[in-house]
Amino acid sequence: MAISSSTSPYPQVAFIGLGAMGFAMSTHLVRTGFNVVGYDIYGPTLERWQSTCDDIPESRASTATSPSEAVKNAQVVCLMVANHHHVHSALFDEKVGAVHSLPQGITVIIHATIPPTEPSHVRSRLTEEFKRPDIRLIDAPVSGGVARSINGTLTIMAASDIAKNLEQPDARIVLDNVSSKGKTLFVIPGTLGAGQSAKALNQVMAGIHIPSASEIMGLAAINGVDTQKFYDTLTTKDSSGKTAVGWSWMFDNRGPRMLSAEPPMASATAIINKDVGIIRDEEVRLNVELPLLNEADGILKTVMKTHSSADDSCIVQYYLGFNSDRANLVVQSAGKSELSSAEQETKIQDLGTAHAVIHLISAFNTITFAKALNLMHADQRKQWYTLISGAAGGSTIFSEVIPLAFNDSNGVEAAFKKYANEKFGADTLEKTLSIIKNAKSQGYEPKLLEAAVARFRQFVE
């Protein structure tokens, strides 16, 4: 049973949207001591949320039957809904929209990932259509997945049309409590939408790295490699604390689920598909092309046809063939290999390097997108580099090559070419082409690796 109290160091929060991320974020706030009123359009989710909160000692959580009811006594509103259509519905629905009950001077935080143009649209509707210029609006998408939502260590990219909104005590204490006590909260220069632009940069990497993690794990399996050993090798730091060349945050995070016969639902394919769709729309708006991201988009759209609600670690089965005899080959190959120790070590090294080639081209796509978004001023680029390096888009290669690209007097292209030759060289090109040829001979299509190699060839030849 929730405990009510009029004394608390924390503001009352209305949390609208209790999907995987919203559920974890909001229950973390409840555990911290916040009085949280939760709302979700799906009744069973709302019931499960209340039941979970009731098991938290000294819980001060309760539920509402509509967004309008949820916000009546709130000081901060957090929106973690699926898309921008749901943001508008939750706020502006004719009958039950939150706007009809929002207290004066309240702060509304949009945590959902939406197009960068949408926060300003929300601001316009609040001010012009509903005559509520008093409402403080913050654009604050998040990165880090459910695990970091649960323990309050998300990376948050926050922006507003009025800078002091981000320092307003009620808003700041909420943001700090879900971002490592503010250590992983990034205030993005600019106005509303700047947070979404920063998130979009991160999602270029994430949108490529989610399918590439599956692609490379499937490649390990068809090459006879012990997939558990492959995962362990790519995710183990050396004695100096440095990550392996083929490491990415997404491979590290998704690997255990790919290796599990019954993986938990942590992040549905539909989520990253939606985020990549936003970037594709931005490509059109900004007249820029991100070839590797576009290849990833094609893979995600195919998986969406049959597995939209499945955890995105299922993409490895797409590569191996849904419902085929080798669909579960990654799981079956864990702890097993008929290769000699020397043969396996060589294959692991070559596959790890091939994965790094994909990461190199994803980093190049990211900096191309940053240019299109006009995020290349010294203060901006330092911030998004730091942000992505510590968020879900991170990789060993990104952390190494991007600072070089910032500082090369000959430009980004020259920096990537120099780095590719020094780090990899033509030998890597030949080995990677051999990996692709061997995979295709087994009916396996390493689409991202093949697309990455097409660009990589221009750097090393």
TrEMBL record:
SUPFAM superfamilies: 6-phosphogluconate dehydrogenase C-terminal domain-like, NAD(P)-binding Rossmann-fold domains. This is 6-phosphogluconate dehydrogenase NADP-binding domain-containing protein. It comes from the Eukaryota. Pfam families: NAD_binding_11, NAD_binding_2. Residues 12-162 form the 6-phosphogluconate dehydrogenase NADP-binding domain. Residues 193-318 form the 3-hydroxyisobutyrate dehydrogenase-like NAD-binding domain.
